[in-house]
Design goal:
single chain, 213 residues, alpha+beta, six-stranded mixed β-sheet
Protein backbone atom coordinates (compact mmCIF):
# COMPACT_ATOMS: atom_id res chain seq x y z
CA UNK A 1 0.00 0.00 0.00
CA UNK A 2 1.16 3.57 -0.60
CA UNK A 3 0.59 6.94 1.00
CA UNK A 4 0.43 9.95 -1.32
CA UNK A 5 0.57 13.54 -0.12
CA UNK A 6 -1.02 16.11 -2.40
CA UNK A 7 -0.39 19.84 -2.21
CA UNK A 8 -2.77 22.51 -3.59
CA UNK A 9 -1.35 24.17 -6.70
CA UNK A 10 -2.05 27.72 -7.89
CA UNK A 11 -2.98 27.92 -11.58
CA UNK A 12 -3.69 31.66 -11.90
CA UNK A 13 -1.06 33.93 -13.42
CA UNK A 14 -0.82 36.14 -10.34
CA UNK A 15 2.64 37.59 -9.71
CA UNK A 16 4.56 35.49 -7.24
CA UNK A 17 4.64 38.30 -4.69
CA UNK A 18 0.83 38.47 -4.73
CA UNK A 19 0.08 34.77 -4.67
CA UNK A 20 -1.55 33.51 -1.46
CA UNK A 21 0.90 31.54 0.62
CA UNK A 22 -0.15 28.11 1.83
CA UNK A 23 0.01 27.76 5.59
CA UNK A 24 2.44 25.00 6.57
CA UNK A 25 0.80 21.86 7.89
CA UNK A 26 1.32 20.86 11.49
CA UNK A 27 2.69 17.43 12.31
CA UNK A 28 -0.82 16.21 13.11
CA UNK A 29 -2.21 17.61 9.85
CA UNK A 30 0.55 15.90 7.87
CA UNK A 31 -0.22 12.56 9.54
CA UNK A 32 -3.96 13.05 9.09
CA UNK A 33 -3.52 13.75 5.38
CA UNK A 34 -1.34 10.65 5.01
CA UNK A 35 -3.94 8.59 6.89
CA UNK A 36 -6.75 9.86 4.67
CA UNK A 37 -4.91 9.08 1.47
CA UNK A 38 -3.39 5.75 2.44
CA UNK A 39 -4.29 3.12 -0.15
CA UNK A 40 -5.56 0.43 2.21
CA UNK A 41 -6.66 -3.00 0.95
CA UNK A 42 -10.38 -3.67 0.66
CA UNK A 43 -11.86 -4.42 4.05
CA UNK A 44 -9.22 -2.47 5.98
CA UNK A 45 -9.23 0.95 7.61
CA UNK A 46 -6.47 3.36 8.58
CA UNK A 47 -6.60 5.25 11.86
CA UNK A 48 -4.27 7.69 13.58
CA UNK A 49 -3.46 6.17 16.97
CA UNK A 50 -0.75 7.38 19.37
CA UNK A 51 0.88 9.42 16.63
CA UNK A 52 1.11 6.44 14.25
CA UNK A 53 -0.95 5.33 11.26
CA UNK A 54 -2.46 1.95 12.17
CA UNK A 55 -4.13 -0.28 9.56
CA UNK A 56 -6.63 -2.86 10.80
CA UNK A 57 -9.54 -4.83 9.34
CA UNK A 58 -13.08 -3.54 9.58
CA UNK A 59 -15.40 -5.49 11.87
CA UNK A 60 -15.72 -9.20 11.22
CA UNK A 61 -18.87 -10.40 9.41
CA UNK A 62 -19.93 -12.16 12.60
CA UNK A 63 -20.38 -8.73 14.25
CA UNK A 64 -23.00 -7.64 11.70
CA UNK A 65 -25.91 -8.80 13.89
CA UNK A 66 -24.70 -6.74 16.85
CA UNK A 67 -24.12 -3.59 14.80
CA UNK A 68 -27.46 -3.90 13.00
CA UNK A 69 -29.38 -4.34 16.26
CA UNK A 70 -27.58 -1.39 17.81
CA UNK A 71 -28.16 0.86 14.81
CA UNK A 72 -31.87 0.03 14.50
CA UNK A 73 -32.50 0.57 18.22
CA UNK A 74 -30.61 3.87 18.28
CA UNK A 75 -32.33 5.30 15.18
CA UNK A 76 -35.62 6.41 16.86
CA UNK A 77 -33.73 8.14 19.70
CA UNK A 78 -30.93 10.09 17.99
CA UNK A 79 -30.72 13.89 18.36
CA UNK A 80 -32.47 15.87 15.62
CA UNK A 81 -30.40 15.95 12.44
CA UNK A 82 -28.18 13.06 13.54
CA UNK A 83 -27.88 9.67 11.86
CA UNK A 84 -26.64 6.26 13.09
CA UNK A 85 -24.39 4.43 10.65
CA UNK A 86 -21.71 1.78 10.36
CA UNK A 87 -20.12 3.15 7.19
CA UNK A 88 -16.34 3.63 7.28
CA UNK A 89 -15.84 7.32 8.02
CA UNK A 90 -12.75 8.83 9.63
CA UNK A 91 -13.41 11.26 12.50
CA UNK A 92 -10.63 13.61 13.60
CA UNK A 93 -9.90 14.99 17.07
CA UNK A 94 -7.31 17.74 16.48
CA UNK A 95 -6.77 18.71 20.12
CA UNK A 96 -5.94 15.07 20.90
CA UNK A 97 -4.11 14.58 17.57
CA UNK A 98 -6.08 11.42 16.82
CA UNK A 99 -8.38 10.19 14.03
CA UNK A 100 -10.59 7.12 14.37
CA UNK A 101 -13.01 5.09 12.27
CA UNK A 102 -15.48 3.75 14.87
CA UNK A 103 -17.44 0.56 14.22
CA UNK A 104 -20.68 2.52 14.66
CA UNK A 105 -21.30 6.23 14.99
CA UNK A 106 -24.13 8.71 15.47
CA UNK A 107 -23.24 12.09 14.01
CA UNK A 108 -24.73 15.35 12.77
CA UNK A 109 -25.44 15.07 9.04
CA UNK A 110 -24.44 18.72 8.57
CA UNK A 111 -20.82 17.69 9.08
CA UNK A 112 -20.84 15.46 5.97
CA UNK A 113 -20.30 18.17 3.37
CA UNK A 114 -17.69 19.19 0.83
CA UNK A 115 -14.84 17.03 -0.40
CA UNK A 116 -13.00 16.52 2.90
CA UNK A 117 -11.67 13.03 3.55
CA UNK A 118 -12.50 13.16 7.27
CA UNK A 119 -15.26 14.44 9.56
CA UNK A 120 -14.82 16.66 12.60
CA UNK A 121 -15.21 14.55 15.75
CA UNK A 122 -17.28 17.37 17.28
CA UNK A 123 -20.19 16.17 15.12
CA UNK A 124 -20.46 12.91 17.08
CA UNK A 125 -23.14 12.26 19.69
CA UNK A 126 -22.25 8.56 20.16
CA UNK A 127 -19.63 6.04 19.09
CA UNK A 128 -19.52 2.27 19.56
CA UNK A 129 -16.58 -0.09 19.27
CA UNK A 130 -16.77 -3.90 19.13
CA UNK A 131 -13.60 -5.37 20.57
CA UNK A 132 -11.43 -8.03 18.97
CA UNK A 133 -8.35 -9.69 20.37
CA UNK A 134 -6.12 -7.28 18.42
CA UNK A 135 -8.05 -4.05 19.12
CA UNK A 136 -9.32 -4.63 22.66
CA UNK A 137 -6.58 -2.65 24.42
CA UNK A 138 -7.00 0.30 22.06
CA UNK A 139 -10.79 0.34 22.52
CA UNK A 140 -10.52 0.20 26.32
CA UNK A 141 -7.58 2.55 26.79
CA UNK A 142 -6.56 4.80 23.90
CA UNK A 143 -10.03 5.41 22.46
CA UNK A 144 -11.71 5.56 25.86
CA UNK A 145 -9.36 8.36 26.86
CA UNK A 146 -9.94 10.39 23.68
CA UNK A 147 -13.67 9.78 23.29
CA UNK A 148 -14.00 10.61 26.99
CA UNK A 149 -12.99 14.19 26.31
CA UNK A 150 -15.07 14.71 23.18
CA UNK A 151 -18.04 12.36 22.62
CA UNK A 152 -21.24 12.41 24.75
CA UNK A 153 -21.72 8.62 24.80
CA UNK A 154 -19.29 5.76 24.14
CA UNK A 155 -20.40 2.12 23.98
CA UNK A 156 -17.91 -0.73 24.22
CA UNK A 157 -19.22 -4.13 23.17
CA UNK A 158 -16.62 -6.43 24.67
CA UNK A 159 -16.92 -9.47 22.44
CA UNK A 160 -14.47 -11.48 24.54
CA UNK A 161 -16.27 -11.09 27.89
CA UNK A 162 -19.74 -10.74 26.32
CA UNK A 163 -20.49 -7.49 28.15
CA UNK A 164 -21.50 -4.01 27.02
CA UNK A 165 -20.44 -0.82 28.79
CA UNK A 166 -21.88 2.65 28.37
CA UNK A 167 -19.68 5.65 29.19
CA UNK A 168 -21.10 9.17 29.37
CA UNK A 169 -20.61 12.64 30.81
CA UNK A 170 -17.29 13.53 29.08
CA UNK A 171 -14.83 15.91 30.72
CA UNK A 172 -11.24 17.06 30.41
CA UNK A 173 -10.34 14.05 32.58
CA UNK A 174 -12.45 11.50 30.68
CA UNK A 175 -15.91 10.10 31.25
CA UNK A 176 -17.43 10.66 34.68
CA UNK A 177 -20.05 7.88 34.53
CA UNK A 178 -20.27 4.30 33.31
CA UNK A 179 -22.46 1.19 33.49
CA UNK A 180 -21.76 -2.40 32.44
CA UNK A 181 -24.21 -5.25 31.86
CA UNK A 182 -23.77 -8.75 30.40
CA UNK A 183 -25.15 -9.46 26.96
CA UNK A 184 -28.83 -10.32 27.35
CA UNK A 185 -29.56 -7.65 29.98
CA UNK A 186 -31.01 -4.21 29.15
CA UNK A 187 -28.59 -1.28 29.23
CA UNK A 188 -29.82 2.28 29.88
CA UNK A 189 -28.43 4.61 27.20
CA UNK A 190 -28.10 8.11 28.69
CA UNK A 191 -28.95 11.53 27.26
CA UNK A 192 -29.28 12.64 24.57
CA UNK A 193 -30.76 9.18 23.75
CA UNK A 194 -32.59 8.18 26.95
CA UNK A 195 -33.78 4.63 26.30
CA UNK A 196 -33.05 1.08 27.40
CA UNK A 197 -31.02 -0.91 24.89
CA UNK A 198 -32.17 -4.52 24.42
CA UNK A 199 -29.02 -6.68 24.18
CA UNK A 200 -30.66 -10.09 23.78
CA UNK A 201 -29.60 -10.14 20.12
CA UNK A 202 -25.97 -9.98 21.29
CA UNK A 203 -26.08 -13.35 23.05
CA UNK A 204 -24.15 -16.05 21.21
CA UNK A 205 -25.86 -19.14 19.98
CA UNK A 206 -23.91 -22.27 21.05
CA UNK A 207 -22.64 -22.95 17.54
CA UNK A 208 -21.48 -19.34 17.16
CA UNK A 209 -19.57 -18.95 20.41
CA UNK A 210 -16.20 -19.90 18.94
CA UNK A 211 -16.38 -17.12 16.36
CA UNK A 212 -15.35 -14.48 18.89
CA UNK A 213 -12.37 -16.37 20.27
Amino acid sequence: MTAILERPMTTESTPAAEQPREEPLTGFEELLRATEELDTPDGYKAELIRGKIVVSPWSRPYYKRHMRSLRLQLAPHVPEGHDPDTSPFLFSFPTSERAYGPDLHVADLKAFVGDARHVDGAALSLVAELTSVSTRDVDWQEKLEVYGRHVPVYLVLDMQTEEITAFWDPSDHGYLARMTVPFGKPLPIPAPFDFDLDTTDFVDQPEEAEATK
